[in-house]
Design a protein that fits this description.
Number of strands: 19
Largest sheet: 10 strands, mixed
Region (Disordered): 57-78
Number of helices: 9
CATH architecture: 4-Layer Sandwich
Helix content: 10-25%
Shape: globular
Mean pLDDT: 91
Strand order of the largest sheet: 1-19-18-17-2-3-4-5-6-7
Signal peptide: 1-24
Domain Metallo-beta-lactamase: 36-280
Keywords: Hydrolase, Signal
Strand content: 15-25%
Organism: Polymorphobacter multimanifer
Low-confidence stretches: 1-16
Structural class: alpha/beta
Distance between the termini: 31 Å
Number of domains: 1
Length: 363
């Protein structure tokens, strides 16, 4: 491990790390703390950028209050945190914004982000599919209401609907949709691992979760996977009975590490070297999933927040960006085209490096 400058205030740290010089063939990935939502910013050496998800609308997010207690006033919004990370990385615009699905913790930041920074293109899986149960009144941020607002907000701006198997090149970063709108990549590779132990969970948390736009990102020899809020039913289909993805070097835990995701066959088949959980203090990071992932051999588990509901299941403290619910440190990842990965934790001032597995290749 290599020590870097000691931590300071959250946004200043994010700025310093994001602006640190990178090798000519290193891609940067900033896992932005949006308090249990998702917002991950990829930046190529040439300055091209891809943001996957946008966190919460202003006023949402943050630690959930204990029963009977009032919610604390919100701090900086998801959109403000995204823009701060982008500016610190030297960006004046975000070239591509990919929305995996239309739940508030993924699409919600779009509405505040558009006035704050130029956006080149929006990418999604197409129309919302999640309808409210008969006889119920959907809330203002339910997908049935968020999707029309999203369409109105991006009207007149370039939009790309990606289907399973579609590809997009971004300055040498190859992005392939492995899942979209409930469909999966048609190719099949080697047999999945432990498929006989695959389990499902009826509580998907809403149809939009398993219709998430999931993408495989290739940077040189490095392979990164982001599946949005994919739940067990979609995760299992990607690797059972045969692997449609191939081994990966880094992936984000599906659905923030919630118990309706985290398929054992998925992780044992893809064998990621690093897994990042985009959880909040009291959102995601369920104990059963953290325990399962933490027990995987030769896999480093990282979290954006200490999971207060499952204190005994958290990963090692040095691999947690925020151990205090009041802080908002990001994780800054450097991805070499050789497949090597380095993760800087601003809270500890330490960078941890991982070499590429020789066996990590296509499926």
């Amino acid at each position: 491990m290599t020590r870097i400058a000691p931590p300071m205030i959250a946004l200043a740290l994010a700025a310093g790390l994001a602006c640190a010089p990178a090798a000519a063939r290193d891609m940067r990935l900033i896992a932005i703390d949006v308090e249990g939502g998702a917002a991950n910013l990829y930046i190529t050496p040439g300055g091209k950028s891809l943001l996957i998800d946008t966190g919460f609308p202003t006023g949402m997010g943050g630690p959930r209050p204990a029963p009977g207690q009032a919610r604390p006033p919100p701090g900086t919004s998801s959109a403000q945190r995204i823009v701060a990370a982008a500016r610190a990385a030297g960006l004046s615009r975000i070239d591509h914004v990919l929305v995996t699905h239309y739940h508030a913790d993924h699409v919600g930041g779009v509405f505040d982000l558009i006035p704050l920074i130029e956006i080149g293109e929006f990418i999604d899986h197409g129309p919302n599919r999640e309808m409210p149960p008969p006889g119920t009144t959907p809330g203002p941020f339910a997908p049935v209401n968020s999707y029309p607002r999203y369409e109105a907000a991006i009207a007149g701006k370039p939009r790309r609907i990606m289907k399973a198997g579609d590809r997009l090149m971004i300055d040498g970063l190859e992005m392939t949709a492995v899942a979209s709108d409930g469909d999966v990549l048609p190719r099949e590779g080697r047999a999945g691992t432990t498929c006989e132990a695959a389990v499902t969970e009826e509580r998907d948390g809403g149809e939009e979760n398993w219709r998430s736009l999931g993408v495989l990102l290739r940077w040189g020899k490095a392979r990164l996977l982001a599946l949005g809020d994919a739940t067990l039913r979609l995760e299992n289909r990607l690797v059972c009975p045969r692997d449609r993805v191939g081994r990966v070097d880094l992936m984000f835990a599906s659905n923030h590490g919630s118990e309706n995701a985290g398929s054992e066959p998925l992780y044992r088949t893809l064998r990621p070297r690093v897994v990042i959980v985009s959880n909040g203090p009291t959102k995601g990071g369920d104990g059963s999933v953290l325990t399962r992932l933490g027990a995987m051999p030769d896999m480093a588990l990282w979290q954006l927040h200490f999971a207060n509901r499952s204190p005994e299941a958290n990963t090692a403290p040095e691999r947690i960006a925020n151990t205090d619910a009041a802080t908002d440190h990001n994780l800054v990842v450097t991805v070499s085209d050789t497949g090597a990965i380095a993760i800087a934790n601003p809270r500890t001032g330490v960078t941890t490096r991982y070499s590429r597995r020789a066996a990590a290749g296509g499926g």
